[in-house]
Write a structure and sequence with these properties.
- The protein is mainly beta.
- Strand 3 and strand 4 form a beta hairpin.
- The protein contains one helix and four strands, in the order ββββα.
- The chain has a domain of 53 residues.
- A four-stranded antiparallel beta sheet has the order 1-2-3-4, with no helix packed on it.
Amino acid sequence: MSEQRDMSGALFKNNRKEKDSHPDYTGKALIDGYEYQVSAWIKTSSKGDKFMSMSYRPNKEEQNSPPPRDLDDDIPF
């Protein structure tokens, strides 16, 4: 298997989905050197457009948790 590059990831169809609340796709992403579990749901907008809603959480196996982010610095005004 090839080494995962930083700021990249992959999603795979969740074949074990049992409830609507379970993600449609799951995978991993490497962000700033930390591995995250990624979940994605296929949703439909009020206009009928399909899109993916995603969530990221640090990998439980990661020994050093990522530092907390100061969201105020990331929001442009």
